[in-house]
Amino acid sequence: xxxxxxxxxxxxxxxxxxxxxxxxxxxxxxxxxxxxxxxxxxxxxxxxxxxxxxxxxxxxxxxxxxxxxxxxxxxxxxxxxxxxxxxxxxxxxx
Length: 94
What we know:
single chain; mainly beta; 31% strand
């Protein structure tokens, strides 16, 4: 099963403050609910799926985007999420 990289707009402070700022984070997750959990649950907008990603290889700290699952990963694009890691992901296995 493939995982996705998600872009999440996250509040930097109190969501009820009208002047609160947000920041953009990227995270590798199974679905939007998992992405929300991994960024701390302070979403300003629903997570946006950027694309599918390859599984990590060995000790690499990046994965590759998969633009077409019939072709495979694009080896020229290395993706490092801003939240969490790649090599230390505890739930790559089922």
